[in-house]
Amino acid sequence: MTALATPTDSPAFTPVDRPVEKLTPEAAAAPIIAAVDDSEASTAAVDAAVQLGAETGAPLVFVYVRRGPVGLLGAPIYQRRLTSAMARARAVLDRALSTAARADVTAEAEILEGSPHKRILELARDRGAQLVVVGRRRRKIGRGVSHAVVRTARRPVIVAQGLTRSLVERAA
């Protein structure tokens, strides 16, 4: 299930089930930002972003935001955790980029550090993104990153849930 959330005080989720029109060359230059991590919700976000990129002709920017490892335990432990986190980020981004390549969609990747929702929205603002795609994870306690992105975004946000494999399967 994929939903489009517009920036309002109380986000409304409506399904995206109408065909998306091709963009003008100026609008197509504005990328679609897709936030990824190593979760199933991220897989849905990648698939939704690739499908939108293929339908609109817009380039994609996949972003992996990691919180910095705690440095209290000393430099060697910090370095091991940092190396592990960066390897995990590169693996996730490589999978997203290969999905985009199979669908013949232009894509690039960024690894950022900090608060995920803030860094995602900063990147969207800096790149002049036309929309942001995030996955939705069910949380037992507290609100997730997707909720924070929807509430504070100044541009449309797509919240992807579940697997949307239609275009990806056709492209493979």
Number of helices: 6
How many domains, in number, for the residues?
Answer: 1
**Poorly predicted runs:** 1-18, 164-168
CATH homologous superfamily placement: HUPs
- Strand content is 15-25%
A few lines on this structure:
The protein has 172 residues and is of the alpha/beta class. The protein contains six helices and seven strands; from the N terminus they run ββαβαβαβαβαβα. Helices cover 44% and strands 20% of the residues.
SSE arrangement:
Blueprint: E1 2-5, E2 13-15, H1 25-28, E3 32-35, H2 40-56, E4 60-66, H3 75-102, E5 107-113, H4 116-127, E6 131-135, H5 145-152, E7 157-160, H6 166-171
Parallel strand pairs: 3-4, 3-6, 4-5, 6-7
Antiparallel strand pairs: 1-2, 1-7
Describe this structure in words.
The chain contains six helices and seven strands. The protein has helices at 25-28, 40-56, 75-102, 116-127, 145-152, 166-171; strands at residues 2-5, 13-15, 32-35, 60-66, 107-113, 131-135, 157-160. It has a seven-stranded mixed beta sheet, sandwiched between helices. Residues 1-18 and 164-168 have low confidence and may be disordered.
